Amino acid sequence: MALILCDQRQRLLRTDGNILVRGGAGSGKTTIALAKACADLDAQRLGPLGKALFLSFARATVARVAEQATATLPRALMPRIEINTYHGFAWTILKSHGYLLCAKRGVALLLPAKARAHLAGLVGAARAARQRQLFENDGLVAFDLFPTLLTELLQTAPALALAYARAYPLIIVDEFQDTNAEEWQMVAQLGRHSRLIALGDPKQRIYDFKGAHPRRFDEYIEAFDPTPFDFAGENNRSPGTAIAQFANDIIDGEYRAANYDGVTVTCYRGRSLRPLKQEILRAVARLRRNAEWSLAVLVPANTLAINVFDYMAQAVHGLPAYPVDILVAAEGPMLAADLIALLMEPRSHQHLAAAILDGLAAFELGRSEEASGGALRKAARYRDLATAVRGRGLDGLEARGIGPGIRNLMDTVATLALSGDPMTDWRAIRACLNASDRKEFQAVAKEARHMRLLRRGAQIESRLAEAWRTHGAYRNARALLAAAVVDDQFAATTRPQHGVTVMTIHKAKGKEFDEVIAFEGQFQRYLQRTGADDERSARFNLHVAATRARRAVMIMTPEDRPCHLLPLRTSHDQ
Ligand SMILES: Nc1ncnc2c1ncn2[C@@H]1O[C@H](COP(=O)(O)OP(=O)(O)OP(=O)(O)O)[C@@H](O)[C@H]1O
């Protein structure tokens, strides 16, 4: 699509200094920011070697921006526009210079799945203190610590700050409404020597639970006196539909129209996912007439995304199976995979038993976002047992409970003749876990089925195959797996999102699709609790979900307990 440059946009392209761009979903903030980067490069405003840095939160957004950029920007300028996530950018600096701030000679990434195990049960200041301790004593850097450490590093080493500012004289910060206090400090530090362009939409603020706050815009205005631009009321994503109007009405809680073009709100019956699958198949039949098409199925919770993904892959009740992709947090599968990798490694029974117990503890603590009291108690017990085994050998395993289960598992795995084909051996070990009479191991096997949610499957396989070729055993399988997962954390998926993709609403931020189906389950609701803040955040989430669509959005809610935030009369009238 050719870029339309109105007067306001042309003025923006000529503006020097810091800039603030506000505007609703799909108004064109990202697009104009990229055009601005090009204009500045063209006019030699970034010096002979300077690059424009585009920072976003989600890898998904980075992929879309990169895709869009390749289609619309002059090729010669592309190498001088760097598109990255806040985390990816911070990590490139911290991994080489972070050691300047801690007692270790080098730093390592604390993967989110492992961080959960280290931080389970800690909140607020206690959590922050523990993260700091892990960094200072062990050189482990949790994601949450990235912005604080980068700010400190650039303050401690002014020469480094100047060098980075020379490399990136223009920094575009996307999704500014969702920055938390630490991220804002980091942006402010970067802005001391570089020009900033902040892009934001107050109505798309969906990360309050991570510290986003409405005052962020005022803080930026006060500190950097940016030239403001506002594209309020513009909609370049879904022109000709009433999707944007509907999405704004969701936030206001007042539905001004009886019908909205491009929007369907519908109740579904029963408890199965069949009605959702039927709608997906209908949408696919409509969309696939075009060569490249995209449909997003957006749900309120990770667990529901996985259920939908599994359901879609089955041919049930006469409905055909359909290929679907999924974007979810993969902490559970990652911890399960870690245990499988452990069982692939050559190791003595005593070491293995203790390591299995530690792995089970990490799995209990890290498989869900917040560990329950039960999970904390179980994990503590496993760790005590692991200490006993390390002290007294296998006698430390008790005769009841998990002890005999571990012995049986180790015996079964020991009888396996590994083949050297990583996938075959992986499956064989997963089958051993599944066949265990202990629920704990069955749960690991179940979670490991979602290993394909980790995008580095092929890389993990080839690293394991290489280990086998070199050593005749899967030596260091866990470390190889962890390294591949670290790579995965920072890989920007440049794969365009085609076909059907299931994800949470939060993951959909910054993306766009031909059509969107938003779906809530009986228990995984748009509105989780009743309270003014919960209601506000549910409205903002629905706003983000609806505005991802270019042509049509369908919002589904269960008939016996419909979401009261939705205009249900509209659906009956249709
Ligand atoms: N000036 C323009 N002329 C033509 N098309 C445009 C223009 N600006 C944006 N678009 C198109 O509109 C769509 C939305 O644009 P963009 O992603 O830049 O909006 P946004 O404000 O960043 O959205 P969001 O806040 O929802 O992420 C894209 O498909 C883009 O190609």
Automatic annotation (TrEMBL):
Residue ranges occupied by any UvrD-like helicase ATP-binding domain in the UniProt entry: 2-239
GO molecular function: 3'-5' DNA helicase activity; ATP binding; ATP hydrolysis activity; DNA binding
Gene3D superfamilies: P-loop containing nucleotide triphosphate hydrolases
Entry-linked Pfam families: UvrD-helicase, UvrD_C_2
Listed InterPro entries: DNA_helicase_UvrD/REP, P-loop_NTPase, UvrD-like_ATP-bd, UvrD-like_helicase_C
Keyword Transmembrane set for record: no
Keywords: ATP-binding, Helicase, Hydrolase, Nucleotide-binding
Residues reported in the UniProt entry to bind ATP: 23-30
GO biological process assignments: recombinational repair
Protein name: DNA 3'-5' helicase II
Originating organism: Bradyrhizobium manausense
Organism lineage: Bacteria, Pseudomonadati, Pseudomonadota, Alphaproteobacteria, Hyphomicrobiales
